[in-house]
Amino acid sequence: MLLTRSSRQALLRPGSSLSPAIAHLSSSCSSPSSINGRRTFVSDADVEKARAYCVNQLRTGDYDAHLVRHFLPRGVRDAYLALRTLNLELARLPETVSNPTIGAMRMQFWKDAINNTFDGNPPREPVSLLLYAALAGLAARTETNPGDGNWSSIKFWLQRFISTRQQRMDNRPFASLAALEEYSESTYATLMYVTLAMLPLRSMHVDHLASHIGKACGIAAILRGIPVLAAPSPQPSSPSTPRRNPVLLLPLDVMADVGVREEDVYRQGPAAPGLQEAVFRVATRANDHLITAREMLKNIRAGQDPGHDYEHAGETGHTYGEDEGGLSPWSSPSSEATDELRALQRGFNVLLDAVPAQDFLTRMEAADFDAFRVKSGWKLPWSLYRAQSTQQI
């Protein structure tokens, strides 16, 4: 339960502001002692300013997410905005901080910001304020059945997301393709889990789909970054600006297998021996996840088993017992299939992150897997509209 009775009533009164919307979490998320009776006032104007800031950040820094947002249910758009702006902020940190200590301090700020936002005391910065508003909206939507709000999992996922980003602050290459997939699960797939939970929706099959799509998105993001990160940085405009060293984040096992050397890529760029083959192998793994997601969609809609087990079932945030909002273990197969179809219909638009990933991989293939020659595309808005209309990814 996110809100106290009095604060819920204040939230739901016409014309009321959001505060004191989030007064406390249930004991599964935080203890009363962590709150100390403090409350933060957040006005509608504060939320509007935060929303405008996040929209502008995505428009200029993550246009794919900016487009996807328009196809999401209204109830989760603010959450998606906040999450993807946070993702953008953390992705930029390795390139904008002058030393690891400052980077660690920034990461700790975001961890504290999440805790404080869940405690009802968001920092006066746009991402936290917008997330606070989204959580208040979720509390309002689940007022009649507070158990639908998966608060502890949302908080756990957000903290895991930040911790994973922190572990990659040094921009070191991934040890293996499996390590890249694990990273993608803890970042892009995790953001999708949070978005689904904000609907709220808890479904093993939809989470399973989000896992495959999130892995594809994470791998695609690493491939997108090759021309930027592997190129030597220009001379800093001022002495206070950190000089970035080129990095290549492709999995080491793949590079070793095809004979790619980082130094060759830094010196020769796209002409480096074996680079296109390495990119091809990594891109193929991303595409395999999208193919698997499409096959799962087809099977679920046919009332069949998805085709393989969900490897993360039973982990934190992925328990689906009846007492936690999942399907009853005593449900008949036909009722389970019906419930999963309903869940898929409710959560489908959150899965539209698959469309930008596929669009990028298609353009990468057209460039013969030369990451430096991938052309920009203009078809993504139409592809998103078609995917939503046909309910196909």
Automatic annotation (TrEMBL):
Location of the region described as Disordered in the Swiss-Prot/TrEMBL record: 305-338
Biased composition (Basic and acidic residues): 306-315
Organism: Sporothrix bragantina
Domain of life: Eukaryota
UniProt-listed Pfam families: SQS_PSY (PF00494)
Protein name (database record): Squalene/phytoene synthase
